[in-house]
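dumping this here so i dont lose it
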């Protein structure tokens, strides 16, 4: 296959733009870019964080474990201006969109408008950051139009192709690879430290206060029943920070209200998930992607059924995995045994070297870098989704044809001046976070009285 870093007439390193809208999506996007590129060659990854509710803090960026790539904050219009540059010195070779589906769709239309009439354009890549357990059709069709839609497993690749084929859209863009953040040393029990149980929490699953308190109490109860063990409650963010999903009821605050507090051998931890897994003997979760990281390293992994097996929880994704169990069984000493056929279909603990999982995607990318790509053509257009698409584009400051909307505050020349706009935006974002974290839960509780 042709080398990505020795392209014909190449006069500079390969340039890659990665747009992300949260910490987890930055992790997936930046690491995917690094996996797809020839590690022995020169490449420049230009990271951009979309300004919004979930813009990550420096602490969150550090905890993603991404090294060798920096990111700056941008608006949607700022990204489109940078990614749509036509000057050969500033143009990107690859644009990787690691965002929620609606944002991907808006950026596809915005880029399509900017690239009209261009002789060549960058290769556009997108995908999902982890387990795809909800909004399969909606999310996939919002990503249609990218040159490569990465599927993190054979199971996902089959589902993605079926969705596109089902609406008569081209499915050639679907490319199987793997989650880019798998890896790490295979699990080996250690007598040098206590047996460690890690409960990987999720920002929005479960949603209800009583359910989150139940899980927290069961984790603390497991620690009390097994004083010889260490129980870690792995947190995603600190109060006031946001990630891919809104966390209205942080476990930190719930833990402060536990009668008697947490047992001495149970504590809250932050940090890079891979480093936490280095000292984990049993990973427990409801449906976190951390389960796939754990399974890949052959760490015993438990997916909880205590709150039922429900699509809303996402644990239905693990049917047939051999990992479904309950806190009662874990308290009694049960250790789940994963099904090897299931794990292989999910792209974890598969035969052969992990790095080979990206070979097909690298080959496709190399071919596209040489190809005459033509215009970006998403499935959603004014004719296929006239009542849906305009609203998606408007939320990102774009007119129905993908051009900048002059009336949008994010558009160049629109709304208030730049300096004042930045001040107003920062104040609004702070007020929004206060509302989500403090006011909204209170209002909901009052409504339940």
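and the seq i came up w/
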């Amino acid at each position: 296959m042709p080398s990505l870093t020795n392209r014909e007439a190449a006069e500079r390193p390969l340039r890659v733009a990665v747009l992300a809208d949260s910490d987890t999506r930055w992790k997936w996007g930046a690491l995917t870019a690094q996996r797809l590129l020839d590690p022995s060659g020169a490449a420049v990854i230009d990271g951009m964080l979309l300004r919004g509710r979930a813009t990550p803090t420096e602490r969150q960026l550090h905890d993603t474990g991404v090294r060798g790539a920096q990111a700056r904050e941008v608006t949607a219009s700022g990204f489109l201006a940078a990614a749509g540059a036509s000057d050969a010195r500033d143009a990107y070779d690859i644009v990787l969109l690691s965002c929620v589906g609606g944002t991907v769709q808006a950026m596809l239309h915005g880029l399509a408008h900017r690239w009209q009439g261009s002789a060549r354009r960058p290769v556009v890549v997108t995908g999902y950051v982890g387990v795809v357990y909800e909004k399969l059709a909606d999310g996939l069709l919002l990503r249609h139009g990218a040159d490569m839609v990465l599927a993190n497993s054979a199971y996902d690749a089959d589902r993605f192709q079926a969705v596109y084929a089902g609406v008569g859209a081209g499915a050639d863009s679907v490319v199987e690879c793997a989650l880019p953040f798998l890896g790490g040393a295979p699990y080996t029990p250690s007598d040098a430290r206590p047996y460690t149980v890690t409960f990987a929490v999720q920002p929005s699953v479960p949603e209800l206060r009583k359910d989150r308190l139940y899980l927290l109490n069961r984790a603390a109860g497991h620690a009390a029943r097994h004083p010889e063990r260490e129980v870690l409650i792995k947190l995603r963010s600190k109060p006031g920070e946001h990630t891919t999903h809104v966390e209205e009821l942080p476990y930190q605050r719930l833990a402060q209200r536990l009668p008697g507090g947490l047992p001495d051998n149970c504590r809250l931890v932050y940090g890079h998930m891979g480093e936490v897994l280095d000292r984990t003997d049993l990973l427990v979760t409801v449906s976190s992607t951390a389960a796939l990281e754990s399974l890949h390293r052959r760490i015993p992994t438990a997916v909880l059924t205590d709150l039922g097996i429900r699509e809303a929880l996402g644990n239905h994704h693990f049917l047939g995995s051999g990992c479904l169990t309950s806190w009662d069984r874990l308290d009694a000493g049960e250790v789940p045994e994963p099904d090897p056929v299931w794990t292989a279909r999910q792209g974890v603990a598969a035969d052969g070297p992990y790095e080979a999982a990206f070979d097909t995607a690298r080959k496709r990318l190399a071919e596209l870098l040489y190809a005459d790509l033509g215009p970006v053509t998403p499935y959603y257009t004014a004719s296929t989704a006239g009542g849906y698409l305009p609203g998606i584009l408007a939320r990102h400051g774009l007119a129905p044809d993908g051009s900048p909307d002059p009336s949008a505050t994010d558009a160049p020349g629109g709304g208030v001046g730049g300096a004042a706009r930045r001040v107003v935006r920062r104040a609004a974002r702070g007020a929004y976070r206060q509302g989500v974290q403090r006011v909204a839960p209170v209002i909901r509780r009052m409504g339940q009285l």
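The first helix runs from residue 23 to 36.
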